[in-house]
Amino acid sequence: MSFKLESSDIPDTPAYIPFNRPFIVGKELFYISQAVLGGHLAGDGQFSRKCQEWMEQRFGAGKVLLTTSCTSAMDMCAILADVKPGDEVIMPSYTFVSTANAFVLRGARIRFVDIRPDTLNIDENLIEGAVNERTRVIMPMHYAGVGCEMDRILEVARRHNLLVIEDAAQGVNATYKDRYLGTIGDLGAYSFHETKNFISGEGGAIIINDKRFIERAEVIREKGTDRSRFFRGEIDKYTWIDIGSSYLPSEIVAAFLFAQLEEADAITRKRWTIYDFYHERFTPLQDRGLVRLPSPPPECRHNAHMYYLILPDAESRSGLIRHLKAKNIHAVFHYIPLHTSPMGRQMGYTEGNLPITEDLSARLLRLPCYYELTREDQERVVREVYSFLDTTC
Q1: In CATH, what number is assigned to the domain containing residue 356?
Q2: Residue ending a domain, choose from 229, 262, 295
Q3: pLDDT at residue 231 is higher than 70
C-alpha cells in the first residue's frame, strides 16, 4: 500500500533562523587563492602583514600580531605580564573561560569582581577593594562590545603599579571616549571567531600598546625563538631564547580575515541596522516592564556585537528559549559565571559571592544577530518574543 502526500498535508514549518551564521562579504575566496598561488601558506606572509598593518593604522595600536585565536593572544599576554604562581589577577566572573585560563596556567589566582548592572562589565568601583600585595594584573572584559570604564580602571592600575590587559574579544572596532577598545591598556586581545563581527573561522590578535613588550611578544609567538628578526635580516640565524609556542595563524586564515577587514565599515553598518531594529521594536516591552534592553553609556560607541534581552527571571528566560526553539529560532543564554563553575568552586568561590553577576547571567537571552540576518527573519524573532511575553507575563 502506498500513498502520496499532497502539499496541503505537509506541515508548514518555518525556515530555521540560527543564532549565528558565517558569511562571505568580499574577496575572501579570491584572497585565499592568492595566498595559495603565492607559495606561502605558513604564518606571517603578506596577508598576515596586511591585517596587522590595517589594525595598527585603523585603531592606532602600537603593534598588532595575529594569533591562532583570542585564547592564544591571552596566553601570550599572561606570559608577557610575567605572572607567577601566587600572583593574583582581577577580572569579572561573567566572561569566557579563556580569560581566566591564561593566568591559571601560569599559576595565578583569579580574583573575581562583580559586574555593573547596566553594562554587565566589571564594576570599576569594586576593583580597588580587590587589590592586595599579590595583585599583578587587572583584566577588564568589554562585554557586547561596550567599553568598560577605562579611565577609572587605569587610574587604579597606575596607583598600584598594575598592568591592564583588555579582553576585547567582542570589542573589535568599538570605542571608549573615541579610543578603540584593546588599545587603551598595556595589552589587549581580539577574537575573529566565526561568532564575532569580523571572522576568520578561528583567529585572534594581540595588541601591544607598551613598546617594552613588542620584542618579547614576537619571540613568544615564534615558539620562543628570534625567528622574526632572522626573517627581517637582522640576524644571520635564529635560536631558542625564551618560552613560547606556535601562535601564528596560517595565511589562509589571514587572507579570509583581510577581506573582512576591508569591508569593516559595511559590516558594522549592517550590524548597527540589525541592532537598532531590535532596539526600536523591543522598547515597548521595556516600557511595559517585561524586559530590559542593552543600555550602552554615551561615551561608548559599541559595535553591535550582540543583541540581548534581560528577562524578569530565569524561568521566563528558559521558557522563551523553548518557545523560540519550537518556532525554529535559535536563541541562547551566555556565560555560566566562572566563580560558580567546578573550577571556580575549587578556588573557594560559592554562589552568592557575586550577586549581580549571578542574577543577570540567569536572565540574559541572546538573539540571532549576524551579518546576513534578514529583516523578514528579524520580524519573525520579534513577533515570537512578543507572542511569548504577551501570553506569559
Answers
A1: 3.90.1150.10
A2: 262
A3: yes
